[in-house]
Amino acid sequence: MSEVFTSKNDEDAIDEIVKHGLHVSYKWMVLRIALAKSMAMQKLPNGAFDVIAVRGSEYRLRQVTGVGREADIHGEHDFNDVICAMLSVLHGKDLFADEKSYHRFLQRHIRRGLDEIRRSWGRKDNFYDYMYQEFFSFSDQVVVSEVAVGDDQLVGELQHALGLSAELQEVITGYRLRRFVLRFTHAGDLESLRKGREKLCFQLGLNAGSLTVTQAGEPLTAWLDQPLPKTQWKSIHSTVFREWIKEGEGQVTPMTMWLGVDVLGVPFTFDLDQAPHVLVAGTTGSGKSVCIHAMLLSLLWRLPPAQLQLCLIDPKRMDYSHYEGIPHLYQQKVITEVDQAMATLQTLVENMEERSRVFARYGYLSFADVLADQNVFVARLQADQPSLYKADELLSYLLVCIDELADLIMQEPEVEVFLVRLAQKGRAMGIRLILATQRPDAKTFTGKLRSNIPARIALAVQTSAESKIILDETGAKDLLKPGDMLVRYTAGVDIVRVHGVEIKVEDIAACVSYWNRKKE
After folding, report:
1. Co-location of 440 and 495 in the same domain
2. Which of 188, 266, 354, 364 could form a disulfide with 369 if both were Cys (CB 3.0 to 4.6 A apart)?
3. Is 144 inside any structural domain?
4. pLDDT recorded at residue 385
Protein backbone atom coordinates (compact mmCIF):
# COMPACT_ATOMS: atom_id res chain seq x y z
CA MET A 1 0.00 0.00 0.00
CA SER A 2 1.55 3.31 -1.06
CA GLU A 3 -1.53 5.36 -0.25
CA VAL A 4 -3.38 6.45 2.87
CA PHE A 5 -7.10 5.76 2.75
CA THR A 6 -9.78 7.67 4.60
CA SER A 7 -13.43 7.01 5.38
CA LYS A 8 -16.44 9.11 4.48
CA ASN A 9 -16.48 10.50 8.07
CA ASP A 10 -12.77 11.31 7.79
CA GLU A 11 -13.40 13.23 4.57
CA ASP A 12 -16.25 15.17 6.16
CA ALA A 13 -13.87 16.18 8.97
CA ILE A 14 -11.14 17.17 6.48
CA ASP A 15 -13.57 19.28 4.45
CA GLU A 16 -14.81 20.98 7.62
CA ILE A 17 -11.26 21.84 8.72
CA VAL A 18 -10.22 23.04 5.26
CA LYS A 19 -13.31 25.21 4.81
CA HIS A 20 -13.86 26.59 8.31
CA GLY A 21 -10.49 26.10 10.04
CA LEU A 22 -7.41 26.38 7.87
CA HIS A 23 -9.05 28.22 4.96
CA VAL A 24 -6.68 26.53 2.49
CA SER A 25 -7.23 24.19 -0.44
CA TYR A 26 -4.64 21.51 0.37
CA LYS A 27 -6.35 18.60 2.10
CA TRP A 28 -3.08 16.81 2.76
CA MET A 29 -2.15 19.56 5.25
CA VAL A 30 -5.00 18.37 7.45
CA LEU A 31 -3.64 14.81 7.33
CA ARG A 32 -0.25 16.04 8.55
CA ILE A 33 -1.87 17.90 11.45
CA ALA A 34 -3.91 14.79 12.28
CA LEU A 35 -0.74 12.68 12.26
CA ALA A 36 0.96 15.09 14.68
CA LYS A 37 -2.13 15.10 16.91
CA SER A 38 -2.21 11.30 17.14
CA MET A 39 1.53 10.87 17.67
CA ALA A 40 1.36 13.28 20.62
CA MET A 41 -1.18 11.07 22.39
CA GLN A 42 -0.18 8.70 25.16
CA LYS A 43 -1.76 5.54 23.76
CA LEU A 44 -1.22 3.90 20.39
CA PRO A 45 -4.16 3.71 17.97
CA ASN A 46 -5.77 0.30 17.78
CA GLY A 47 -6.85 -1.87 14.86
CA ALA A 48 -10.30 -0.30 14.73
CA PHE A 49 -8.80 2.38 12.49
CA ASP A 50 -7.89 -0.27 9.90
CA VAL A 51 -11.58 -0.83 9.19
CA ILE A 52 -13.24 1.55 6.73
CA ALA A 53 -16.95 0.92 6.32
CA VAL A 54 -17.53 3.60 3.69
CA ARG A 55 -14.47 4.59 1.66
CA GLY A 56 -13.66 8.28 1.43
CA SER A 57 -10.50 9.18 -0.52
CA GLU A 58 -6.94 8.05 -1.00
CA TYR A 59 -3.81 10.18 -0.59
CA ARG A 60 -0.38 9.44 -1.99
CA LEU A 61 2.55 9.26 0.40
CA ARG A 62 4.15 12.02 -1.63
CA GLN A 63 1.35 14.29 -0.35
CA VAL A 64 1.31 13.05 3.24
CA THR A 65 4.98 12.49 4.10
CA GLY A 66 6.64 14.24 1.13
CA VAL A 67 8.43 11.05 0.05
CA GLY A 68 10.46 11.68 -3.10
CA ARG A 69 10.15 15.45 -2.89
CA GLU A 70 13.08 17.81 -3.06
CA ALA A 71 13.03 21.11 -1.18
CA ASP A 72 11.23 23.73 -3.24
CA ILE A 73 10.17 27.33 -2.94
CA HIS A 74 7.02 26.26 -1.12
CA GLY A 75 9.06 24.72 1.66
CA GLU A 76 8.13 21.15 0.76
CA HIS A 77 10.52 18.49 2.01
CA ASP A 78 10.76 14.71 2.21
CA PHE A 79 9.82 13.88 5.82
CA ASN A 80 9.18 10.20 5.16
CA ASP A 81 12.29 8.85 6.88
CA VAL A 82 11.74 11.07 9.91
CA ILE A 83 8.13 9.97 10.26
CA CYS A 84 9.08 6.31 9.77
CA ALA A 85 11.74 6.60 12.47
CA MET A 86 9.31 8.22 14.91
CA LEU A 87 6.65 5.56 14.31
CA SER A 88 9.30 2.85 14.71
CA VAL A 89 10.13 4.20 18.16
CA LEU A 90 6.46 4.59 19.14
CA HIS A 91 5.51 1.08 18.07
CA GLY A 92 8.77 -0.64 19.05
CA LYS A 93 9.28 -2.08 15.59
CA ASP A 94 11.72 -1.48 12.72
CA LEU A 95 9.29 -0.09 10.18
CA PHE A 96 12.06 0.62 7.66
CA ALA A 97 12.26 -3.16 7.23
CA ASP A 98 8.47 -3.60 7.21
CA GLU A 99 6.94 -1.19 4.74
CA LYS A 100 3.48 -2.75 5.00
CA SER A 101 3.32 -2.19 8.76
CA TYR A 102 4.66 1.35 8.33
CA HIS A 103 1.83 2.25 5.98
CA ARG A 104 -0.72 0.60 8.25
CA PHE A 105 0.44 2.44 11.37
CA LEU A 106 0.69 5.70 9.44
CA GLN A 107 -2.93 5.37 8.32
CA ARG A 108 -4.05 4.45 11.84
CA HIS A 109 -2.46 7.55 13.32
CA ILE A 110 -3.86 9.85 10.65
CA ARG A 111 -7.38 8.44 11.01
CA ARG A 112 -7.17 8.56 14.82
CA GLY A 113 -5.95 12.16 14.67
CA LEU A 114 -8.80 13.15 12.35
CA ASP A 115 -11.24 11.48 14.71
CA GLU A 116 -9.84 13.35 17.70
CA ILE A 117 -9.95 16.72 15.93
CA ARG A 118 -13.50 16.12 14.71
CA ARG A 119 -14.62 15.39 18.26
CA SER A 120 -12.81 18.24 20.00
CA TRP A 121 -12.99 21.14 17.53
CA GLY A 122 -16.07 22.95 16.24
CA ARG A 123 -16.31 25.38 13.35
CA LYS A 124 -17.15 28.21 15.78
CA ASP A 125 -13.72 27.78 17.41
CA ASN A 126 -10.63 29.46 15.96
CA PHE A 127 -8.63 26.55 14.52
CA TYR A 128 -5.25 28.19 15.07
CA ASP A 129 -6.09 28.82 18.75
CA TYR A 130 -7.22 25.20 18.93
CA MET A 131 -3.88 23.97 17.51
CA TYR A 132 -1.96 26.13 19.95
CA GLN A 133 -3.92 24.70 22.88
CA GLU A 134 -3.43 21.13 21.62
CA PHE A 135 0.26 21.27 20.77
CA PHE A 136 1.84 24.05 22.82
CA SER A 137 -0.30 25.08 25.78
CA PHE A 138 1.29 22.69 28.24
CA SER A 139 4.61 24.44 27.75
CA ASP A 140 3.06 27.28 29.77
CA GLN A 141 1.88 25.01 32.55
CA VAL A 142 3.56 23.45 35.54
CA VAL A 143 7.25 22.73 35.06
CA VAL A 144 8.62 20.57 37.83
CA SER A 145 11.56 22.26 39.51
CA GLU A 146 14.63 20.47 40.82
CA VAL A 147 15.02 23.11 43.56
CA ALA A 148 14.12 21.88 47.04
CA VAL A 149 12.73 24.65 49.23
CA GLY A 150 14.17 24.75 52.76
CA ASP A 151 11.86 25.19 55.76
CA ASP A 152 13.50 28.38 57.08
CA GLN A 153 13.89 29.71 53.53
CA LEU A 154 10.15 29.42 52.88
CA VAL A 155 9.11 31.18 56.11
CA GLY A 156 11.70 33.88 55.52
CA GLU A 157 10.61 34.59 51.96
CA LEU A 158 6.93 34.68 52.96
CA GLN A 159 7.85 37.55 55.28
CA HIS A 160 10.37 39.22 52.98
CA ALA A 161 8.54 38.93 49.64
CA LEU A 162 4.92 39.06 50.71
CA GLY A 163 4.95 40.55 54.20
CA LEU A 164 3.20 37.49 55.63
CA SER A 165 3.94 36.08 59.05
CA ALA A 166 3.42 32.30 59.09
CA GLU A 167 4.27 29.34 61.30
CA LEU A 168 5.44 26.22 59.46
CA GLN A 169 3.61 23.46 61.32
CA GLU A 170 4.61 20.43 59.26
CA VAL A 171 6.32 19.30 56.04
CA ILE A 172 4.90 16.17 54.40
CA THR A 173 6.55 14.35 51.49
CA GLY A 174 4.01 12.42 49.45
CA TYR A 175 4.01 10.47 46.19
CA ARG A 176 4.50 13.49 43.93
CA LEU A 177 4.41 16.54 46.18
CA ARG A 178 6.09 18.15 49.15
CA ARG A 179 3.37 19.79 51.26
CA PHE A 180 4.10 22.69 53.64
CA VAL A 181 1.40 23.14 56.29
CA LEU A 182 1.30 26.84 57.17
CA ARG A 183 -0.61 28.66 59.91
CA PHE A 184 -1.14 32.39 59.36
CA THR A 185 -1.98 35.29 61.65
CA HIS A 186 -4.84 36.95 59.78
CA ALA A 187 -7.78 35.65 57.76
CA GLY A 188 -6.74 37.70 54.70
CA ASP A 189 -3.28 36.13 54.54
CA LEU A 190 -4.50 33.18 52.43
CA GLU A 191 -5.71 35.48 49.67
CA SER A 192 -2.46 37.46 49.86
CA LEU A 193 -0.52 34.21 49.44
CA ARG A 194 -2.60 33.24 46.41
CA LYS A 195 -2.08 36.61 44.76
CA GLY A 196 1.63 36.61 45.57
CA ARG A 197 2.30 33.03 44.51
CA GLU A 198 4.26 33.95 41.37
CA LYS A 199 6.38 36.47 43.26
CA LEU A 200 7.15 33.87 45.92
CA CYS A 201 8.20 31.36 43.24
CA PHE A 202 10.56 33.98 41.77
CA GLN A 203 12.10 34.72 45.17
CA LEU A 204 12.62 31.00 45.85
CA GLY A 205 14.16 30.35 42.44
CA LEU A 206 11.28 28.16 41.28
CA ASN A 207 9.56 28.00 37.92
CA ALA A 208 6.43 30.13 37.66
CA GLY A 209 3.41 28.16 38.79
CA SER A 210 5.46 25.58 40.70
CA LEU A 211 3.63 26.24 43.99
CA THR A 212 -0.09 25.65 44.51
CA VAL A 213 -2.10 27.00 47.43
CA THR A 214 -5.05 25.21 49.05
CA GLN A 215 -7.11 26.16 52.07
CA ALA A 216 -6.82 23.46 54.73
CA GLY A 217 -9.67 22.30 56.93
CA GLU A 218 -8.46 24.16 60.01
CA PRO A 219 -8.79 27.91 60.74
CA LEU A 220 -6.00 30.17 59.41
CA THR A 221 -4.23 27.13 57.93
CA ALA A 222 -3.17 26.59 54.31
CA TRP A 223 -1.31 23.96 52.32
CA LEU A 224 1.49 25.06 50.02
CA ASP A 225 2.39 22.24 47.62
CA GLN A 226 5.61 21.94 45.62
CA PRO A 227 5.94 19.14 43.01
CA LEU A 228 8.79 16.73 43.57
CA PRO A 229 11.20 16.13 40.68
CA LYS A 230 9.84 13.40 38.42
CA THR A 231 12.77 11.17 39.34
CA GLN A 232 11.37 11.08 42.89
CA TRP A 233 7.75 10.29 42.00
CA LYS A 234 6.33 7.07 43.42
CA SER A 235 4.01 4.94 41.31
CA ILE A 236 0.92 3.12 42.56
CA HIS A 237 1.01 -0.24 40.82
CA SER A 238 -1.96 -2.47 40.08
CA THR A 239 -0.76 -5.09 42.58
CA VAL A 240 -1.28 -2.55 45.38
CA PHE A 241 -4.64 -1.67 43.85
CA ARG A 242 -5.73 -5.34 43.99
CA GLU A 243 -4.65 -5.51 47.64
CA TRP A 244 -6.88 -2.53 48.47
CA ILE A 245 -9.83 -4.25 46.82
CA LYS A 246 -9.17 -7.50 48.67
CA GLU A 247 -8.81 -5.73 52.03
CA GLY A 248 -12.05 -3.83 51.36
CA GLU A 249 -14.16 -6.98 50.98
CA GLY A 250 -17.05 -6.74 53.41
CA GLN A 251 -15.82 -3.38 54.70
CA VAL A 252 -17.12 -1.06 51.99
CA THR A 253 -20.34 -0.44 50.08
CA PRO A 254 -20.85 -2.31 46.78
CA MET A 255 -20.17 0.81 44.68
CA THR A 256 -16.92 1.82 46.39
CA MET A 257 -14.03 2.51 44.01
CA TRP A 258 -10.32 3.07 44.61
CA LEU A 259 -8.82 5.92 42.58
CA GLY A 260 -5.31 6.15 44.03
CA VAL A 261 -3.77 7.88 47.06
CA ASP A 262 -4.12 11.34 48.53
CA VAL A 263 -1.17 13.68 49.03
CA LEU A 264 -0.26 11.88 52.27
CA GLY A 265 -0.21 8.47 50.55
CA VAL A 266 -3.48 7.22 52.08
CA PRO A 267 -5.62 5.09 49.69
CA PHE A 268 -8.53 7.19 48.42
CA THR A 269 -11.97 5.72 47.82
CA PHE A 270 -14.91 7.16 45.91
CA ASP A 271 -18.39 5.82 46.67
CA LEU A 272 -20.92 5.87 43.84
CA ASP A 273 -23.68 5.23 46.37
CA GLN A 274 -22.79 8.48 48.10
CA ALA A 275 -22.14 10.33 44.84
CA PRO A 276 -24.33 8.47 42.36
CA HIS A 277 -23.15 10.23 39.22
CA VAL A 278 -19.79 11.76 38.35
CA LEU A 279 -18.15 13.80 35.58
CA VAL A 280 -14.54 12.88 34.79
CA ALA A 281 -12.70 15.40 32.62
CA GLY A 282 -9.14 15.98 31.52
CA THR A 283 -7.13 16.69 28.42
CA THR A 284 -5.28 14.16 26.26
CA GLY A 285 -2.58 12.45 28.29
CA SER A 286 -3.95 13.58 31.65
CA GLY A 287 -4.80 10.01 32.75
CA LYS A 288 -8.57 10.27 32.39
CA SER A 289 -8.98 6.87 30.75
CA VAL A 290 -6.76 5.17 33.34
CA CYS A 291 -8.82 6.78 36.11
CA ILE A 292 -12.03 5.35 34.63
CA HIS A 293 -10.44 1.90 34.25
CA ALA A 294 -9.53 2.01 37.96
CA MET A 295 -13.13 2.87 38.79
CA LEU A 296 -14.50 0.03 36.67
CA LEU A 297 -12.02 -2.60 37.87
CA SER A 298 -12.72 -1.62 41.50
CA LEU A 299 -16.28 -2.81 40.90
CA LEU A 300 -15.70 -5.65 38.45
CA TRP A 301 -13.21 -7.48 40.67
CA ARG A 302 -15.82 -7.59 43.47
CA LEU A 303 -19.30 -7.66 41.93
CA PRO A 304 -20.70 -10.54 39.86
CA PRO A 305 -23.02 -9.88 36.88
CA ALA A 306 -26.03 -10.51 39.12
CA GLN A 307 -25.05 -7.41 41.12
CA LEU A 308 -23.66 -5.16 38.39
CA GLN A 309 -24.68 -4.52 34.80
CA LEU A 310 -22.29 -2.33 32.86
CA CYS A 311 -23.45 -0.17 29.95
CA LEU A 312 -20.38 1.09 28.10
CA ILE A 313 -20.80 3.74 25.41
CA ASP A 314 -17.60 4.42 23.48
CA PRO A 315 -17.99 6.59 20.35
CA LYS A 316 -14.19 6.73 19.97
CA ARG A 317 -13.97 2.89 19.84
CA MET A 318 -10.85 2.94 21.98
CA ASP A 319 -11.03 2.80 25.74
CA TYR A 320 -13.87 0.35 26.40
CA SER A 321 -13.13 -2.21 23.69
CA HIS A 322 -10.99 -4.13 26.20
CA TYR A 323 -14.15 -5.08 28.12
CA GLU A 324 -15.76 -6.90 25.19
CA GLY A 325 -16.91 -10.34 26.29
CA ILE A 326 -17.19 -9.69 30.01
CA PRO A 327 -20.54 -11.09 31.24
CA HIS A 328 -21.45 -7.85 33.02
CA LEU A 329 -22.05 -6.01 29.73
CA TYR A 330 -25.52 -4.56 29.26
CA GLN A 331 -26.91 -5.89 25.96
CA GLN A 332 -23.74 -8.06 25.77
CA LYS A 333 -21.74 -5.48 23.83
CA VAL A 334 -19.88 -2.17 23.97
CA ILE A 335 -21.95 0.54 22.27
CA THR A 336 -19.93 2.41 19.61
CA GLU A 337 -22.47 3.96 17.21
CA VAL A 338 -24.39 7.14 18.00
CA ASP A 339 -27.75 5.68 16.93
CA GLN A 340 -27.09 2.63 19.12
CA ALA A 341 -26.24 4.92 22.02
CA MET A 342 -29.50 6.83 21.60
CA ALA A 343 -31.54 3.63 21.49
CA THR A 344 -29.70 2.18 24.49
CA LEU A 345 -30.18 5.30 26.62
CA GLN A 346 -33.87 5.35 25.74
CA THR A 347 -34.12 1.69 26.77
CA LEU A 348 -32.35 2.48 30.05
CA VAL A 349 -34.87 5.23 30.79
CA GLU A 350 -37.69 2.78 30.11
CA ASN A 351 -36.04 0.18 32.38
CA MET A 352 -35.68 2.81 35.08
CA GLU A 353 -39.37 3.66 34.89
CA GLU A 354 -40.23 -0.04 34.98
CA ARG A 355 -38.14 -0.52 38.10
CA SER A 356 -39.95 2.39 39.71
CA ARG A 357 -43.36 0.87 38.94
CA VAL A 358 -42.38 -2.60 40.20
CA PHE A 359 -40.81 -1.29 43.40
CA ALA A 360 -43.86 0.87 44.13
CA ARG A 361 -46.16 -2.08 43.45
CA TYR A 362 -44.55 -3.95 46.34
CA GLY A 363 -44.30 -0.94 48.63
CA TYR A 364 -40.65 0.02 48.15
CA LEU A 365 -39.53 3.60 47.54
CA SER A 366 -36.03 2.93 46.25
CA PHE A 367 -33.45 0.41 45.08
CA ALA A 368 -31.75 0.64 48.49
CA ASP A 369 -34.98 -0.38 50.21
CA VAL A 370 -35.32 -3.39 47.90
CA LEU A 371 -31.74 -4.54 48.56
CA ALA A 372 -32.31 -4.24 52.30
CA ASP A 373 -35.36 -6.53 51.99
CA GLN A 374 -34.10 -8.60 49.08
CA ASN A 375 -35.25 -12.09 50.10
CA VAL A 376 -38.80 -10.95 50.84
CA PHE A 377 -38.94 -8.95 47.60
CA VAL A 378 -37.79 -11.92 45.46
CA ALA A 379 -40.27 -14.27 47.14
CA ARG A 380 -43.17 -11.89 46.58
CA LEU A 381 -42.06 -11.22 43.01
CA GLN A 382 -41.89 -14.91 42.11
CA ALA A 383 -45.18 -15.75 43.80
CA ASP A 384 -47.06 -12.86 42.21
CA GLN A 385 -45.78 -12.48 38.67
CA PRO A 386 -43.15 -15.16 37.95
CA SER A 387 -43.24 -14.64 34.19
CA LEU A 388 -43.19 -10.83 33.96
CA TYR A 389 -40.10 -9.73 35.89
CA LYS A 390 -36.61 -11.19 36.33
CA ALA A 391 -35.31 -10.65 39.84
CA ASP A 392 -31.65 -10.40 38.74
CA GLU A 393 -32.48 -7.55 36.34
CA LEU A 394 -34.22 -5.63 39.11
CA LEU A 395 -31.61 -6.29 41.80
CA SER A 396 -28.42 -5.35 39.95
CA TYR A 397 -26.82 -1.93 39.86
CA LEU A 398 -26.82 -0.42 36.37
CA LEU A 399 -23.65 1.58 35.70
CA VAL A 400 -23.65 3.70 32.54
CA CYS A 401 -20.21 4.90 31.35
CA ILE A 402 -19.87 7.30 28.42
CA ASP A 403 -16.31 7.84 27.25
CA GLU A 404 -16.63 11.04 25.23
CA LEU A 405 -19.68 13.02 26.27
CA ALA A 406 -18.83 16.04 24.10
CA ASP A 407 -18.72 13.99 20.92
CA LEU A 408 -21.97 12.21 21.68
CA ILE A 409 -23.88 15.41 22.43
CA MET A 410 -22.34 17.18 19.45
CA GLN A 411 -23.53 14.43 17.09
CA GLU A 412 -26.88 13.85 18.78
CA PRO A 413 -28.13 16.65 21.10
CA GLU A 414 -31.16 14.54 22.08
CA VAL A 415 -28.80 12.41 24.19
CA GLU A 416 -28.85 15.10 26.86
CA VAL A 417 -32.59 14.59 27.49
CA PHE A 418 -32.07 10.92 28.35
CA LEU A 419 -28.97 11.60 30.46
CA VAL A 420 -30.74 14.28 32.49
CA ARG A 421 -33.67 11.93 33.09
CA LEU A 422 -31.33 9.12 34.19
CA ALA A 423 -29.41 11.50 36.45
CA GLN A 424 -32.59 12.83 38.07
CA LYS A 425 -34.26 9.54 38.90
CA GLY A 426 -31.49 6.98 38.53
CA ARG A 427 -30.10 7.49 42.02
CA ALA A 428 -33.22 6.03 43.64
CA MET A 429 -33.44 3.20 41.09
CA GLY A 430 -29.90 1.82 41.32
CA ILE A 431 -28.63 3.51 38.13
CA ARG A 432 -25.29 5.30 38.20
CA LEU A 433 -23.57 7.50 35.58
CA ILE A 434 -19.89 8.08 34.82
CA LEU A 435 -19.58 10.74 32.12
CA ALA A 436 -16.16 11.50 30.67
CA THR A 437 -14.99 14.24 28.35
CA GLN A 438 -11.75 15.68 27.02
CA ARG A 439 -13.02 19.21 26.48
CA PRO A 440 -15.50 20.34 29.12
CA ASP A 441 -17.53 23.36 28.09
CA ALA A 442 -20.93 24.85 28.76
CA LYS A 443 -22.36 23.35 25.55
CA THR A 444 -21.37 19.82 26.58
CA PHE A 445 -21.83 19.96 30.33
CA THR A 446 -25.02 21.99 30.39
CA GLY A 447 -26.77 23.53 33.37
CA LYS A 448 -29.25 20.65 33.62
CA LEU A 449 -26.48 18.07 33.72
CA ARG A 450 -24.38 20.16 36.11
CA SER A 451 -27.20 20.43 38.64
CA ASN A 452 -27.83 16.68 38.58
CA ILE A 453 -24.19 15.53 38.56
CA PRO A 454 -22.52 17.32 41.47
CA ALA A 455 -19.58 14.89 41.83
CA ARG A 456 -16.56 15.86 39.73
CA ILE A 457 -13.11 14.47 39.00
CA ALA A 458 -10.78 16.89 37.23
CA LEU A 459 -7.47 15.80 35.76
CA ALA A 460 -5.06 18.20 34.07
CA VAL A 461 -6.81 20.64 31.72
CA GLN A 462 -5.48 23.33 29.42
CA THR A 463 -7.24 26.41 30.77
CA SER A 464 -8.58 27.78 34.02
CA ALA A 465 -11.96 28.17 32.32
CA GLU A 466 -12.15 24.40 31.80
CA SER A 467 -11.24 23.86 35.45
CA LYS A 468 -14.15 26.11 36.46
CA ILE A 469 -16.56 24.14 34.26
CA ILE A 470 -15.57 20.91 36.03
CA LEU A 471 -15.01 22.01 39.62
CA ASP A 472 -16.60 25.47 39.76
CA GLU A 473 -13.14 26.78 40.63
CA THR A 474 -9.64 26.94 39.19
CA GLY A 475 -6.83 24.53 40.06
CA ALA A 476 -6.94 21.72 37.51
CA LYS A 477 -4.67 23.68 35.15
CA ASP A 478 -1.84 23.27 37.67
CA LEU A 479 -2.08 19.49 37.95
CA LEU A 480 0.81 17.19 37.06
CA LYS A 481 -0.24 14.77 34.36
CA PRO A 482 -0.67 11.86 34.11
CA GLY A 483 -2.98 10.70 36.89
CA ASP A 484 -2.93 13.78 39.11
CA MET A 485 -6.52 14.77 39.89
CA LEU A 486 -8.82 16.91 42.01
CA VAL A 487 -11.91 15.14 43.37
CA ARG A 488 -15.08 16.70 44.71
CA TYR A 489 -18.05 14.65 45.93
CA THR A 490 -20.53 17.49 45.77
CA ALA A 491 -20.79 21.28 45.82
CA GLY A 492 -19.60 22.85 49.07
CA VAL A 493 -17.40 19.88 50.01
CA ASP A 494 -13.61 20.28 50.16
CA ILE A 495 -11.69 19.17 47.08
CA VAL A 496 -9.19 16.33 47.58
CA ARG A 497 -6.02 15.98 45.51
CA VAL A 498 -5.41 12.38 44.45
CA HIS A 499 -2.58 10.66 42.58
CA GLY A 500 -4.07 7.92 40.41
CA VAL A 501 -3.23 4.24 40.33
CA GLU A 502 -1.55 2.75 37.24
CA ILE A 503 -3.88 0.48 35.27
CA LYS A 504 -2.64 -1.28 32.15
CA VAL A 505 -4.38 -3.20 29.39
CA GLU A 506 -3.07 -6.42 30.96
CA ASP A 507 -4.93 -5.62 34.19
CA ILE A 508 -8.22 -5.23 32.32
CA ALA A 509 -7.57 -8.43 30.36
CA ALA A 510 -6.95 -10.34 33.60
CA CYS A 511 -10.31 -9.24 35.00
CA VAL A 512 -12.19 -10.07 31.79
CA SER A 513 -10.47 -13.46 31.62
CA TYR A 514 -11.37 -14.17 35.26
CA TRP A 515 -15.09 -13.65 34.63
CA ASN A 516 -15.04 -15.53 31.36
CA ARG A 517 -13.56 -18.55 33.16
CA LYS A 518 -16.31 -18.28 35.78
CA LYS A 519 -18.86 -18.24 32.97
CA GLU A 520 -17.62 -21.52 31.46
Report:
1. yes
2. 364
3. no
4. 65
pLDDT at 117: 84
Residue ranges of E strands in 365-500: 397-402, 431-437, 455-459, 484-488, 496-500
Predicted local confidence at residue 494, as pLDDT: 82
Q: Please indicate, yes or no, whether residues 62 and 79 belong to a single structural domain of this protein.
A: yes
Average pLDDT score, the chain: 88
**Which domain covers residue 380, as residue numbers?**
238-519
In a domain, 380, yes or no: yes
For the chain, how big is the Rg over CA atoms in Å?
25
Same structural domain, 290 and 345:
yes
Of 103, 135, 167, which residue constitutes the final position of a domain?
135
Round to whole Å and give the CA distance between 56 and 16: 14
- Stretch among 184-198, 262-276, 462-476 having the lowest mean pLDDT: 462-476
C-beta of residue 463 within 8 angstroms of C-beta of residue 133? yes
- Where b means 16+ CB within 10 Å and e means fewer, 355-365 reads bbebbeeeebe
- Would you say 405 and 445 are in contact if contact means Cβ atoms under 8 Å apart? yes
Give the domain-ending residue among 171, 206, 232.
232
Q: How many whole angstroms separate alpha carbon 331 and alpha carbon 348?
A: 11
Question: Are residue 13 and residue 63 in the same domain, yes or no?
Answer: yes
Q: Which residues contact 490 (CB under 8 A, 6 or more apart)?
A: 275, 454, 455
Measured CA to CA, the distance from residue 64 to residue 86 in angstroms comes to: 15
- Whole-angstrom distance, CA of residue 308 vs CA of residue 35: 39
List phi, psi (to 5°) of 5.
-105, 145
Q: What is the largest CA-CA distance in the chain?
A: 84
Q: Does residue 146 lie in a domain region?
A: no
Strand pairing partners for 402?
313, 435
Q: What is the reported pTM?
A: 0.74
Domain presence at residue 476:
yes
CATH (domain of 463): 3.40.50.300
- Note whether 198 and 312 are same-domain residues: no
**Other CB atoms closer than 10 Å to residue 493's CB: what's the count?**
12
- Could you give the percent of the chain with pLDDT greater than 90? 53
Quote the number of domains for the chain: 3
Is residue 20 located within the same domain as residue 92? yes
Residue 449 and residue 306 share a domain: yes
AA identity, residue 149 = V
**Residue 73: pLDDT band by 50, 70, 90 thresholds?**
very low
The span from the CA of 147 to the CA of 227, in Å, is 10
Q: Residues 137, 465: contact at Cβ < 8 Å?
A: no
Please, are residues 434 and 338 in contact by the beta-carbon 8 Å criterion?
no
- Residue 253 sits in the same domain as residue 178: no
In Å, what is the CA distance from 4 to each residue of 22, 109, 233, 316, 438? 21, 11, 41, 20, 27
